[in-house]
Amino acid sequence: MIARLRQPWTDRQAAWRLGAVACLVLLIIVLMVAFVAARAWPVLQANGWIAWLGPGGSVDHQMGQMIATGQHPPAAAYHLRAWPLIYGTLLTTGVSVIVGLVFALFSAIFIVEFAPARVRAVVVPAVRLLAAVPSVIYGLIGILVLAPFVGNHLISPGRKDSVQNVVQIDGTGVLVAIVVLTVMITPIMIAIVVDALRAIPRAWTEGAAALGANRWEVLWTVSVRAARPAIVAAAVLACARALGEAVALSMVSGSRGFSPNPVDGITYLFEPIRPLAASMVENVDAINAPAVKASIYAFALLLLLSSLALSIGGYVAKLPMRRQGLRI
Amino acid sequence: MAVAPPPPVYDPPAPLRPAPRGDTIRSWRWSQRLAFAACWAAGLALCAVTLAIVVYMGVRGVQYLNPKLLFSRPTPGLQQHTTGGILDPILGTVILTIIGIAIAVPLAVAAAVWVVEYGKPAPLARAVESGIEVVAGTPDIVIAIFGLAIFQLHLFAPLSFTASGGGVFGRSFIAAGAMMSLIALPLVFGAAREGLMSIPMHLREASWALGKTRICTIRTILLPQIRANVATGSALGMGRIVGDTAVVVVLLGATLQLEPQGDVPILGNLRGTGSTLTSYVYGASPAGEGNAPQKAYAAAFVLLLIVLTLNFVVDLLGRRKESLA
Amino acid sequence: MTSRDRVADPFLDDAVPSLPPPRRRVRLDRSPVPVPETQGAPTARVRRRGPGGPERMRVEGLSVRYGDNLAVKDVSLSIHAGEALALIGPSGCGKTTLLRTLNRLTETTAGAGRGGRVLLDGVDVEQVELTALRRRIAMVFQQPNPFPMSIFDNVAYAIRVQNRKRPGRRELEPQVVDALRRAGLYDEVAGDLDRPALRLSGGQQQRLCIARAIATRPEVLLMDEPCSALDPRSTEVIEDLIGELRRELAVVIVTHNLAQAHRVGDKVAFMYLGDLVEWGDADQVFEAPRAQRTRDYVAGAFG
To answer: C220-224 and C137-140 as β-strands: parallel, antiparallel, unpaired?
Structure first.
């Protein structure tokens, strides 16, 4: 067979063979979705399609029960209410993306318009460097520098005592998780928005300046407005990255499936959470227990569906902009 | 009037002075001045954070990294000075990167060539492109879990560790490498596709007019031309592989040393488990079991140097392509 | 040369058969050519002159430098309301630079320097605050550059930007409609003002840019080769428009096209390599130019 492959290919053969490789890639992707859905089926079946996303008891306790049921769990062992994890995911992802987007927009405007040339020459490579740093390093700095700082200096002992019965707060928690996640996703957003702002045709900015708009108005009403598709794309990309961030968050977010209560006031910021992806990483050791396996695959299915929904949402958000003649 | 009046006589032209600057902030509205200040604040904060991260990692890394660490193997131990070095994690990173790129590049280039050069039927080509975009957007933890699902099938038992009870462990370098290739695939595919689409049509037409088949044209003319693009894509993919932790933690077992499975020299290592720099940093940090922050800093510093080098290579390739174009 | 010495010519020798006669009879079209409506040279069309008015801007000894290169050398002229000044000259002679200096757009280029003065209503333009200056001197560019917004938003852009309080749509609508009417575009887009501006044709986009520029009723309108990217029909429409506009504003138009300058301009300034060679009435410059170089350029010897 190797000898037959080594003879010169005809075009038809080449089309078939290369097409087979491309379809293999597509097949792997389809298999991925199918496998994850199939493995997640027991949990979905036992809990109902939507109900397992709701609140109902401590999710850590439920996962622990699942581990304890061993290799042949009864149907009741699949009981799961994953709301604390989903709440943690929504909280960290949502706040990080919003804060990061605002910060990225203003930083990008600074880089493109107001920065002195020497500062710009340093900042642009620095941003690209930050975007390439592995997430585990951010997690390391978070857990070795930020968490002790917050735990020792920002949280008073009185506050720790006040919640001692329910949960331990030691610095890792909502605040550090959001800070680390924001620092992680902002550089890529800055890079995308800077590229988009630089690509605005000079005809538009000059035309706006000639109509009597000052520098800021030209930037905001013409350049930023024309760069909206890129801003949407940056937000979608950052959201996808934040959703899937497992390792760094498992290091800094406190690792307890706990729903922080906003009524607690400032303490809310210090309470531990555990987003979905982090839960998956931490429970993967126990994956031999079928109940745990099904739960983890259910989380994976949820993450997959959210990524898909994000892509579609981004595409839909850009449709009206395309009508106005904005590319991308 | 028939004749324009002669222009009045002026003094010789004044020496040229530089143009006055554009509109000053003094004329802006209050909200605009506030926004201006916000931009400066954001920019300065960005510089400060970047500087802080780079300087901190550099200081800690230099403080804790000594060459002995780079060449000694890690050993489990309770005390810092008995836990050995980071040779195995470095080897693990290298092996994983090689496997990942070796699988990703042929697949990605073949797919890109088919999509750009052949691409019939058209819906299938669009489906392949969309599928690869879906992979690009999938979190790496989901890819890792998917890899576990595949490699724990009995079909793939020879590729990893099999427990005595018959349960397939599903963790090995091969498994992790295969999933890493899935992570690097979209980057190489994108780079190859961009390279192929930027080659003007007349090059292909000239070759076809000389009687070469399409596949021969691809092999002899187009592929050599996109070498730089594929190199850039591979460097980007390598950067992502080197920095990925979730796939390693899930699919590589995260044992400290390279543990071969079976006696066959290279295949045994590939079927076995080990660690990479990323999982070592995770394990040595307070979040893992090791609780050895100094070793964690040292390993993180080495990791950062590798990623910076790869980034630098990508920049270099990009600049060389621009200067040639 | 005798016939014996002649080299065998394949085209003349009988050895090569000549082509057979055509099968169909070829009928020549002898119908009369329709006489064009306007007799004589196109530039001899009856032109209404602008009413003429007070002086709006004056350029005194202006010199502009880009790096080491002197683009405009010691130019002095004046611009009056109610008439159109056409700047003509070959490429690179500094007419666009002069135009852009009038509303201080040259400052956006790094390394630009200038000397001399430009006065707007007697006040040096450098003393006037930049955005206020550009509200009184509007500009239309060579390539139509409507913003990626709706037609309404494009025309309302200048009004919105120049007002402290953002005016609402109901206040803006009459001003927008008025600007579109004055630019001669309203009839074509009246149906849907929220259509994306980039969907209009080239000529319509350029008229939209003119509407946008005149929406806030500036005193001076600068036009940098506005018709060079357009087809002849749109060019004609815009030239008629300029004829209307110059009654209320002062118009300065840079053009490559000598015939257009003759049609549109009341005063003409001819520049060559940065020097102002001649400046005067259009009739005088084109029919009885004083400088030799002007004579050569108008006759088409170079440029």
So the answer is: parallel
